[in-house]
Every structure is written in C-alpha cells, then in structure tokens.
Amino acid sequence: MNPVKVIGAGLAGCEAAWQLAQRGIPVTLYEMKPKKMSPAHHSADFAELVCSNSLRGDRLENAVGLLKEELRRLDSLILRCAEATRVEAGGALAVDRYGFSSMVTAEIRNHPLITVVEEEVTQVPEGPVIIATGPLTSDAMSQAIHAYFAGREYLNFFDAAAPLVTAESIDMDHAWFASRYDRGTADYVNCSMDAETYAAFVRELASAQEAEVHGFEDSMVFEGCMPVEVMARRGVDTLRYGPLKPVGLKDPKTGKEPYAVVQLRRDNAAGTIYNIVGFQTHLKFPEQKRVFSMIPALKNAEFVRYGVMHRNTFLNSPQLLDCFYADRRNPLVAFAGQMTGVEGYVESTASGYLAAVAMAAKVQGKEPLDFPRETAIGALGRYISDPSIVNFQPMNVNYGILTPLGYRVKGKANKNLAIANRALDRVEEIKKQLTLDN
Questions:
Q1: Closest to 350 measured CA to CA, from 322, 370, 379, 321
Q2: d(CA 82, CA 100)
Q3: In degrees to the nearest 10, what's the CA dihedral of 208, 212, 218, 222?
Q4: Which tens digits make up the pLDDT trace of 247-267?
Q5: Which of 118, 210, 334, 388 lies 20 to 30 Å (CA to CA) from residue 265?
Q6: Residue 86, number of CB atoms within 10 A of its CB
Q7: E strands, 187-342, where?
Q8: Domain 161-310 has CATH 2.40.30
C-alpha cells in the first residue's frame, strides 16, 4: 500500500497521521520545521501551541467539552497527550505547552508506520494526501493551494497570542488564587482593578502604539482572538464584559466583587510561567510593558514573551470541501486544521481526525463512515462544507451547529447536556462500526 502523505505536523496533521497509522496505513509526514520556521513558531517539536496553552472548557454543558469527550472516546492522540500533560486550570483543560508538544512528537516519531520528512512542501501532491499546513501556511504552499483551486480566493483573518509573565514577578498583594464561581481548584491568579485604575488602563490601552502588521484592519480580526486594544476602542466597558469580567470572583480582602479582574493561567507544569488570559495583542513590545504594567499586580511583571500578531489564512471551505474535509472534485485530496475554517485547538484536532478516518476508508476501498450532525465532530464537518453559507468565517464548535433535540428541555445547561448525551450515544455506535470495519 502506498503511503498517505500528510503535510504539516501541527495538531491536525499529527492527529491525522496517527489515526491513519493506527489503521495500518503507512504515512509520510512532511514538516518544514526546523529548517524553516514561521514568525509565530519557536520550537522544533510537533503540535506547537503558538497561542494559549488552554484547550478550553471541559464540561459537557459546553460544546468544546463535548467535542473533547468525543475525541477521547475515539482514541485521539492529541487528547491523550493533553490529559497526560495537564496543568490545573479550573474547569478548563490546559497543558504544559512544552511537555505536550514533546509527547506528541515522541509518539509520532516512534510510530513504526509514520515516516517524518523534514522539508517544506511547495506543491499540492497527488492524492492520497491530507494538507494540514495551518493558518500560517508558507507563502509557497499558499500559492500552490491557490493555484490548485484554480485561483479561487482564500479568505484570511488576523490572530494574536497573549503575553507570558513569570510567577515570581506577580505582586500577590494585589492578586489572589481562585477559579470563577469556585469551580474546581483555585488555579487562576486574579488581579483586581478598581474603577479609577481600570479607566486609566483602558484609556492608555486604546491609544497605545501598535506594531506594524501588513494589511491589518480591526474588521479582519477573528472575534475569538480579538486583541485587547481593539476591544478597548469599542467602549470603556467592553473589557469588563470580556476578559476582565469580575463576575463569579470575590476579593478575599474585601469579600466583594472587584470592579475588574485580569486573570492569569498557569502556562507550564512547574507553575513558573503564567499566561495573561484573553490579552492577545499586536501592540509594540515596549507599549505592552508600559500599559500592562498599569495592572497593579503586574507593576513589576517580568515578561518572558510578549504578545504577537499574525495573519491566519483559511479556505473558502463551503465552496471547496465536503463534510470529510476533502476536495469536492477529488476525494483523495483533503485538508485539515484551521486552514479549513475551524477555529481552536480541539476543533483542529477533530478535523484531522475526521479527514484521516475518511481517508483511511477511501484508500481501503470502503465508503467513509458517516459522522452525523448529532455529533460535534460531524457538525463541524457539515458547517465548513455548507454551500449555503455566504459570508464564511472561522468558528469554534457550539451547540447551535448540532441538530436540535426536537423537544423542549427546561434550562440551557439541561438542554445542552441532553444534546451531549445524544451525541455520545452516536459516538458509541460509531466506535462499534469502526471496530468492525478494522
């Protein structure tokens, strides 16, 4: 059997390579690192997390929690490595960024059916192939994909990563450990701000100098990664209803809810580095130091990484791809990851999983197994391939794209749980069929 080519060793590419190999299909995995690095990449390891170290909520009432549970039950490599390198983050699944990538890399390199080739691919190969070069696809490969689709335009948006600070530099006289609503353990450092400090902070943030980013416009920013300075320009209270919301938190010194709260989340297992949650930015580095140091708990903060901004590129998938992330014209050429318009680490993993399971069936002469819209995995595939979508934008998984229950359930959380339980029943049926097929 000829190997299936997988281009790109991010989360989607690694998941795809692993799922193919686990089904007895040889894989050639191409990765341009470390010979060539994008501006946002710093490590030679696979599955590098270039933005947050959080895979977001882990509760079934939240759609991404359901998506993670589906992937766990279907033996996802990425979810297994995430669980093994987990750091406490309240109700979220966050990982030690470097431990996670190191573990994924070892699993991929040690698999007997996966051959890793360290080189940049600059043409769309003949199938079977899964292209998962990510939102930071190199210029040469981006042009090749553009030509492959006969000149039909990519779409693109800007994405941003938040700064990291050392734990020892946080002034705990102005902060405390807690999780919102006291859910789980007290894993977040909460940095309070009074009304006067907050107002001054927002003024300086809104007028701070931005770094040069070619072609940047506020309107091109994906809402889920909105830079804090863009939010500050939308109104003085925007941040208080976003990343600085104080709801569910009480300052132990006063017993009251603060005016605004900046949360820090552990970024490594040792707890020596913290991520400023929701503080994606493209301010100049000196401006980040100046403005973010206005937060009382961060007045002496040591920044180990400043926020960065980069352009992410994605396909006009509803016009180009089917529900298995494959080219409508050629089912043996598939795509996966954020370049397809799914947004988020877990969503990228899910796309890699589904593209690989479908590709495995195709090369074995079988029909791909249907993942219905009742499942989060299937719903994502159907969202990105829905030709009725005119203004296609990247999107996180949400319960709105899953098939409605068809009957009333009182309370949003109860309704979401009912949808989740139905989805997991479908996943168990799919698992049985996959076992029979293999």
A1: 379
A2: 6
A3: -110
A4: 999 999 999 999 999 999 988
A5: 210
A6: 18
A7: 188-193, 260-266, 273-276, 303-305, 308-314, 333-335
A8: yes
| Amino acid identity for residue 401 in this structure | I
> For residues 417 and 59, what is the distance between their CA atoms, to the nearest angstrom?
9
CA distance 396 to 63: 9
Please, where are the H alpha helices in 174-227?
195-207
Which residue ranges does the chain devote to CATH 2.40.30? 161-310
284-313 tens-digit pLDDT: 999 999 999 999 999 999 887 888 776 777
Class (C level, CATH) for 4-154+315-437: alpha beta
Distance CA 228, CA 191 (A): 16
Q: What is the dihedral of CA 87, 12, 43, 137, to 10 degrees?
A: -140
Owner of token pair 């997390």: 49
* Mean pLDDT confidence for 59-68: 92
- Global pTM? 0.75
User: How far, rounded to the nearest angstrom, does the alpha carbon of residue 16 sit from its chain's CA centroid?
Assistant: 16
Q: CATH 3.50.50.60 in the chain, residues?
A: 4-154+315-437
The pLDDT assigned to 133 comes to 92
pLDDT tens-digit series, residues 169-203:
999 999 999 988 887 788 899 999 999 999 999 99
pLDDT tens figures, 31-43: 998 877 666 666 7
Q: Which residues contact 163 (CB under 8 A, 6 or more apart)?
A: 275, 276, 279, 281, 288, 292, 303, 305, 306, 307
Separation CA 325–CA 317 (nearest Å): 8
Q: Which of 159, 163, 306, 295 is nearest to 226 (CA)?
A: 159
- Contact (Cβ atoms closer than 8 angstroms) between residue 288 and residue 306: yes
More confidently predicted of 151 and 228: 228
Q: Are 372 and 353 in contact (CB under 8 A)?
A: no
Q: Which two tokens stand for residue 5?
A: 């080519």
Q: Which two tokens stand for residue 173?
A: 């006289």
